[in-house]
Amino acid sequence: MSGVSVRMAANGLFLGFMLLIFGGKTETRLSVKEKLNNEAISSHRDLAPDFKEKYFKQILDHFNYNSLGNGTYDQRYLITDQYWKKGNGPIFFYTGNEGDIWEFAQNSGFITELAAVQGALVIFAEHRYYGKSLPFGKDSFNIPAVGLLTVEQALADYAVMITELKKELGAQKCPVIVFGGSYGGMLSVYMRIRYPNIVTGALAASAPILSTAGLGDSRQFFQDVTADFEKFKPACRDAVQGAFQKLNTLAQLKDYRRIQSAFSLCKTPSTPEDIHQLNGFLRNAFTMMAMLDYPYSTHFMGSMPAFPVKVACGTMLNGTDLMSALRDTVGIVYNSTGQLTCYDLYSLYVECADPTGCGLGFNSYAWDYQACTEIEMCFESNNVTDMFPPMTFTEQQREQYCSKRWGVIPRQGWLKTQFWGDDLSTASNIIFSNGDLDPWANGGIRKSLSPSLIAINIPEGAHHLDLRESNPNDPESVVVARKKESEIIAQWVEAAMKESA
Ligand SMILES: *[C@@H]1O[C@H](CO)[C@@H](O)[C@H](O)[C@H]1NC(C)=O
Ligand SMILES: *[C@@H]1O[C@H](CO)[C@@H](O)[C@H](O)[C@H]1NC(C)=O
Ligand SMILES: *[C@@H]1O[C@H](CO)[C@@H](O)[C@H](O)[C@H]1NC(C)=O
Ligand SMILES: *[C@@H]1O[C@H](CO)[C@@H](O)[C@H](O)[C@H]1NC(C)=O
Description:
Number of strands: 10
Organism: Carassius auratus
CATH superfamily of the largest domain: Alpha/Beta hydrolase fold, catalytic domain
EC number: 3.4.14.2
Number of domains: 2
Strand content: 5-15%
Structural class: alpha/beta
Function: Plays an important role in the degradation of some oligopeptides.
Bound molecules: 2-acetamido-2-deoxy-beta-D-glucopyranose
GO molecular function: dipeptidyl-peptidase activity; serine-type exopeptidase activity
Catalytic activity: Release of an N-terminal dipeptide, Xaa-Yaa-|-, preferentially when Yaa is Ala or Pro. Substrates are oligopeptides, preferentially tripeptides
Oligomer: single chain
CATH architecture of the largest domain: 3-Layer(aba) Sandwich
C-alpha cells in the first residue's frame, strides 16, 4: 500500500503502503503547525495542533521473557494536550502504520479537529520498524533482527504505551478511542478486539481487513483501480489498455530502442525482466492515482494534483500517440516536479511482496517483510477484469520471493486465525469507513454487522479521505460521514464515562 514518490525516492526512503514517503525527512522536527504554515494552508491554521515529539521506552519482545529479557527500544510518538480537558476528556490514539508518524499526523487533521470539539488528548504513535522507531537502529532489517516486526508486537507496544502514558498523565479514567487509516485502520480494529480492556472504540478508515487476510478475490484490487478510470470515462480505460497493448507488441518484437524512446527510459531495456519492471512501474502510477483521488491537491505519499484520475484521463486522451500519452500520464505521479529528464525504472519503483507497491527506503523493507509474513496481498492484474497487462502474484510466487529475500515462508491464513477474518460478530464499537473511489474499499467491511459494528460508505471518497482535515472542496458525502463518526465516538465516550463513574 505504499506510495512511491519522487520526493521520497530522492530521500532514499521507503516502502509499501506509503512508506516511502515518510522516511528521512529533514523537516520532521517542525511542528505540524509550522509545516502547515510552510505550505500556506490557511483555512484551519487556528486548529493546527502543536505536537510534541517524544520517545517511549518500549519492550523489545513482549512475548518471550527469555530471549531479550527486559531489553527496550525508543518508540517515537507525537502528543498534544492543547484541546484536552485534563483528566476527563478522552484520549484519541492513532495506531501508526507503515511510515514516518509525522506523515500520518499531517494527513489526519480530522482527528485533531474532533479533539478540539470533544476535549481530547491526541497521541500519534509510530509503528515499530518504521520512521525513527527502529529497534536495532540501522541493523533492524538484518535477519533475524527483523523478526520482532509483527502485528502482535506492534499492538502490544500500543497497549503498553497507552497504559503507561495514562498513569503518567493522570488519565486513568479517560476512555481511549483508537484511529487508523489503511493498515493503521486494521491495527485499530485489532486493538479493539484484542485489548477491549484498554480501548473503548475504533475508527478504522479504509482498513482492508478482509483482502489482506486472504479473503476475497485476487482480481478485486486492480479491477477497482480500473473502475475509477472507467467510471470517469470508458474511453480512458480503453486508451490505457491500448497503450499497454502497443508496449506488449513492441516487447514481443524485442524493439527495445523504441520502447526506451516512447517511455523516456534512462536505460534501454534488454530483457523480459526489464519489460516486467516497466509494466509494474506503469501500473503502480494508476494505483497511486486511484487511491489518492482527492478533490484537492495533496502531499501524501508524493504530490498529487486535485482529482488525479480526471487529470490522468485528460492526459491519456490528449493526442494520438497512446504510448507517449501513457508516459505523460504516469508522469503525474513520478514527474510531479517536472524535473526528470528520463525514468530510471528500478529506482522509481521497487517490486516487492505487495503488488500495490512498497515505496522506497527503509520503510519499504519493513512493509515488504510484513507482506512476506502476516499480511497477504496476492493481487493480480489480467487484462480482462482490469486494464493492465497480465501480472500474476500467486501464493507460490510470494513464497519463492519471501524465502529468497527474507528467509521466511508466509503462513497463509494466520492473520485470519489471529484477528478473526470476517467472523467479527462478537466484536463491538468499531466504525469501518470506506470510500467508493478507493481500490482498497472492497477488501474491507462495507455493511454494518451489528448496531455497534458500523460501516460508513463515502461514495465520493478515496483512501481514508474522512481522516483528512476538513477542506472547502470536500464532497458532501465525507462531511456527512465525519459528522456521523463524530456522533458515534461521542456516544462511546459518554457511555464509557458513565460506566466508570
Ligand atoms: C534488566 O534486568 C536486569 C536484572 O534486574 C538489570 O540488571 C538490567 O539493568 C536490566 N536491563 C535493562 C535494559 O533494563
Ligand atoms: C489484452 O487483451 C486484448 C484483447 O484480448 C489483446 O488484444 C491485448 O493484446 C491484451 N493486452 C496485453 C497487454 O496483453
Ligand atoms: C493537450 O495537448 C495540448 C497540445 O499538446 C496541450 O496544450 C494541452 O494542455 C493538453 N491538455 C491536457 C488536458 O493535457
Ligand atoms: C518531466 O516533465 C517535464 C516538464 O513537463 C518534461 O519536460 C519532461 O520530459 C518530463 N520527463 C519525463 C521522463 O517524461
